[in-house]
Amino acid sequence: MKWLQIGKDATRNVARNKLRTVLTMLGLVIGISSVIVLVGMSDGSNRQVAEQMKALGGDIISAYLFEGSLGYDDMDDVRALSGVADAVPSKHLNASVSAGTEKSNRAAVEASDEHYLDVRNLKLAAGRNLSSVDRENKSKVCVIGGAVARDLFGTTDALGRTIKLAGDEFTVVGVLEEKGESMGLNTEGLVLVPHQSAGTLGSDGKIETLYVRAAGDDAVQLAKGSVSDYLENEKGISPAMFSVNTQDELLGAGGTVNETMTLLLAGIASISLLVAGIGVMNVMLVSVAERVREIGIKKALGARRGDILIQFLVEALVLSLLGGALGILLGMALCAAAEYAGIPCVVSPTVVCVAAGASMVIGLVFGIFPAHRASQLHPVVALRQE
Amino acid sequence: MISITRLSKLYRMGDDEIRALDAVDFSVRRGEFVAIVGPSGSGKSTLMNIIGLLDTPDEGTYLLGGEDVSHMSDNRLAALRNRKIGFVFQNFNLLKSMSAEENVRVPLIYRGMRARQADKIARDMLARLGLGGREKHLPSQLSGGQQQRVAIARALVGSPDILLADEPTGSLDSKTSAEIMAMLKTLNELGQTIVFITHNPELAREAGRVVTIADGMLFEEAVRV
Q: What is the pLDDT of residues B67-96, one digit of tens each?
């Protein structure tokens, strides 16, 4: 009961000095909201990366050969390696894409085979996949992304239509499901042709890039090892002349940059919170100095040291928690605005709890010294104060 | 009620040692109205602070209701002040941000009483002192005499053993002073022990017993029947 009254008193004192309260809280509001936004943006970009990982499949391994090459027949060997579920060649071709008078500038022609869609986790919206028959017949067929279809025909309904790749006519047999753009893989602009049909498009048939799908998430390292081993020992390519990377490793570079950024931002946020805390302490010291006489009167009426300590500590807490709450609200609003503007930003409940906890800790840490000082005042000295 | 023997309080001012109180003997019986008179600098404030448990003596003993309170911890003294002493100050010393009622109930709240019960007792006490209807007024909305009556209500609300009044009329005009003095006398007649400190010998005569303090030493003056 006593504490409730002391708490009420403290709130009243905070409310009495409105301008001072608002200015003090401003520091906290800025500090806390920046923490919310910065952590939110970091979480947001992590979420984006995770989504891309999921879209691509975390079990994808890419191999690049800087020297030497594989033939199409070698793909069977690669598919038989331990830890490997499937593998496809990937050959980017520099060919213009058009139909009639329409051209598609975002189209990227890639030569591979019927395993490609599986390995890259792509699905057809209409039509069929490439087939072994297409390979054997060197058929002039292709599977295209939705954007290419729209560019050339104004619609995704493109089955059976003919497109020109570097002047050569190809028939559209399949249209991909729209999936959006993801890391290094423009599925919307994809024009997939059979590896064996690419000769007329200037392909030499040598495979320098391949994608491998591991047999499950825990076989990724095994698959990576066996692919490297195969390239080095079976094909005699020096390890310096090829690179085999898991999806984790490719994303890892981005992750490290992100981590450094997060640390930097966390540092800035901590400094602003420290400054806000010093502001709270400053105001509390002023508040104590102004109310020495009040402290004296209360002591004369029987207030113990603890009563005075609690009163000022609660006052500091009210200040910091109020500032923290406003900071959290502002942070959430800013995050929502960022998300609306296309910058990924997520406010997790953990961050909100941490921010609330941080404001409480600031109130306690920076409030305890002024409160202690107030509680130690000698009643005679305090009462003498004008 | 109060039994003080050979009580001394020293202050150090640079290299000089000042004896604010020098081996003072003083006692107050239950139900007495005692005035302590002395000019400023005589040591009467120091004596009042010690009697009121705001300060502790350097030498000598102070028994309050038979209990030795000469060397107690701050928190023990605070608890005793809360229960045994009621202060009335020259400048009222009301808490500015609190209403009359809230001011009066402060000692009860520090005692741990529920607010609802404390409010009721505070209202009753204000009514007894003729301040019914002014419970919600802030000190700034009350006259000097009214403020001092609120202060007296606050001093009395916890039924203290001793009402300690330090120049209670020092900030009031003569008419209001007379009212306050009359009120103190009435309270004394109802059995309240009062120690009254003043520099004004004339006012002191209102009390049942007058002691004079000068240069840190006490002299009994007169005992009226």
A: 999 989 999 999 999 999 999 999 999 999
B83 touches chain A (CB under 8 A): yes
Element (H, E) at B73: none
Token pair listed for A244: 């085999």
The answer to whether residues B54 and A300 touch, using CB atoms and an 8 Å cutoff, is: yes
The span from the CA of B123 to the CA of B131, in Å, is: 9
Pair A227, A81: CB distance under 8 Å? yes
Domain boundaries, chain B: 2-223
How far is it, in rounded angstroms, from Cα B124 to Cα A338? Answer: 60
A28 sits in the region (left: phi over 0; alpha: psi -120 to 50; else beta) called alpha
Tokens representing A82? 């331990």
Residues in chain A closer than 8 A to B157 (CB atoms): none
Residue closest to A52 by CA, chosen among A208, A209, A191, A254: A254
Q: Where are the alpha helices (DSSP H) in chain A?
A: 2-16, 18-56, 74-79, 116-119, 132-137, 146-153, 220-229, 247-290, 292-300, 305-340, 349-375, 379-384
Q: What is the DSSP pairing of strand A108-112 with strand A190-194? A: parallel
Q: Tell me how long chain A is.
A: 386
Q: Check B113 against A307: CB less than 8 A apart.
A: no
Query: What six digits make up the tokens of A205?
Result: 């048939």
- pLDDT, tens only, A58-113: 788 888 888 888 888 888 899 989 889 899 998 888 888 888 888 888 888 989 98
A residues 307-366 lying closer than 8 A (beta carbon) to B: 307
Shortest CB distance from B78 goes to which of A12, A302, A380?
A302
Within 123-162 of B, beta carbons closer than 8 Å to A belong to: 154, 158
Cross-chain residue pair B54–A379, CB shorter than 8 Å: yes
A73: phi then psi, degrees, rounded to nearest 5: -65, -25
Q: How many residues does chain B have?
A: 225
| Nearest-neighbour CA in chain B from A4: distance (Å) | 9
Angle in degrees, 0-180, between the axes of helices B100-110 and B115-128, rounded to the nearest 10: 130
Tell me yes or no: is domain B2-223 CATH 3.40.50.300: yes
